[in-house]
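In keeping with the milestone schedule agreed at the kick-off meeting, the structural modelling team has produced records for the first pair of proteins. Each record is given below as a sequence line and a structure-token line. The laboratory manager (R.T.) confirmed that both were archived under the project's standard naming scheme.
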Amino acid sequence: MPLQRWTRLIVTAGFSLAVLGSFTPARAAEKAPAIDPRAESIVRAALQNIATARSISLEAEIVNDIPLDSGQRIQEIGIQKTYVRRPDRLAVVRKGHGASSGSMYYDGKLFTLWKPEENVYATWEAPTTIDALFDTMQEKIGFVPPLSVLLHEDAGAGDAKKVRSATYVGLTPIRGVDCHHVALVGENVDVQMWIADAEPIFKRIVVTYKKRPLTPQWTATFLDWNFSPRLSDYLFAFSPPPGARKIEFKVAGKP
């Protein structure tokens, strides 16, 4: 059983927020985008906060729109815990239903995806850094999880795509915390971000896929950030549970 369907679900669910990297303002565009300096400064500070951390743990509630053939959108809700120890350890554990469940592990040598509902997993020999892992995912297995650019060493400040506009909306409370609300417009997606006023930490991100049918949204509400956790090796090494069945990844570009 190839992992073709599973990898599509992972792309839809958004294991991470790679889309943020698309909104680092482009400086060499033919026409300068409408970038509010205050919005840019707030976003850059939040990205820098992540880039300077050598280890990170975070917990988020993920709400993912699933378009149905009937024309209706339903929401799948899950809780995602992410653990990063740079340069070569990553684990993402999701609890939910359907696309909202599943885990991924990277121990510096192997990358593993595990689908608990079916108790199946697949592995491949991975590069030696998190950055290289994300850089080769598209070629190897046909997807890059959406938080991936955020988890790069430069936290989204590297290869930037054009942004049409970035607007500072104002202060809005998120779970009792005053947050700067920033709205970004891109070619394929629009992004809203809420960043805490007291400390540059992402509290909520909403991505709107405006070129997909029914313009679905992906929302992450961050429940906890820790920029200096002590993370043991066992968090990143996958041990198959009883009865787990190993299957093969569908290689990108092959039927």
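The second protein of the pair:
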Amino acid sequence: MGKSELGRVLSPEALDAAEGGRARLAIEVPGDWLTDPCELIVVVPRRLACARCDGGGCDGCDRSGALRAPEDDDARTVCLRLDQLAAGVAIRVATPFAPETQIAQLIVEIRTGARPSPGVTRRVAPPAPAYAPRVSSWVGVVLLALSAAAAILLSLLAR
């Protein structure tokens, strides 16, 4: 599956009720990284603490206290797009890796530090586009079909 972006928004209640393993990862970034919109590229460690039991062992982690992320670095890379943000927040990423992994959610705690945690890099986010109303692609298809139908109808009526 490769890189996963924080792009799907779910209700907290739906996330809390979801089955599957929840892993927790605490990272540090320099405070100036959080002043402007950016993307944090995080290569997640192979083993992560279980967020349900904080490493004590529960049904979500098969009583091990830890969850395993994919072997490959690319498969363990998560991209977090951030607007201005204060440190000390936690971001919950639904389905951060391929569906066959035991991790259904990844909770990333972001803290400030002198230097970034290993595996964490920053990429400046491109500027937000000027306001343009978003029209989903299916609306365009429907409008195209309607205009074609109207042209056919007009040509039949013109005879």
